[in-house]
Amino acid sequence: MHSFMLAQPTPAAFCAAEEGEPLRGVTTSAGRNVLIGAVSHRAADCALVVDLPLTRAQIEAGISASWRRAIPGWQPTDEELAGIRSLLDLAAGQPWGPYSGP
Predict the structure, then answer these.
(1) Which terminus of the chain, N or C, has fewer Cβ atoms within 10 Å?
(2) Under 8 Å CB-to-CB from 15, ≥6 apart: which residues?
(3) How confident is the model at residue 9, as a pLDDT?
(4) CB contact burial 44-66 (16+ within 10 A = b; e otherwise)
(5) Mean pLDDT value of segment 2-25
(6) pLDDT given for residue 46 in this prediction
(7) What is the pLDDT of residue 87?
(8) 75-80: average pLDDT
(9) Contact indicator for 18, 36 with CB cutoff of 8 Å
(10) CA atoms within 13 A on the CB side of 92
(11) Domains of the chain: total
(12) Distances (CA, A) of 11 to 3, 31, 35
């Protein structure tokens, strides 16, 4: 089991990603974590941390497979996978439930 994050709009939070959308990465902007939607590729600063019955490797492989379906012939590099790895690290350090970044 591994913690994962889904987009979760809340009042006074920025969330252009769709509610419930799986997130694919995290970056930092102006000192805040900015989460990235896996489908819409839109930003959010709030999420719902959930526990998935998958290993970290299975989650990473699933997102990589999704990218390859979207862009045939593309193979993500370690640098490109850094966003999902950062997101998984962030999720692992959070309690389950709502998350609003620092």
Answers:
(1) C
(2) 7, 8, 9, 44, 45, 46
(3) 62
(4) bbbbbbeebeeebeebbeebbee
(5) 72
(6) 80
(7) 82
(8) 78
(9) no
(10) 11
(11) 1
(12) 24, 20, 17
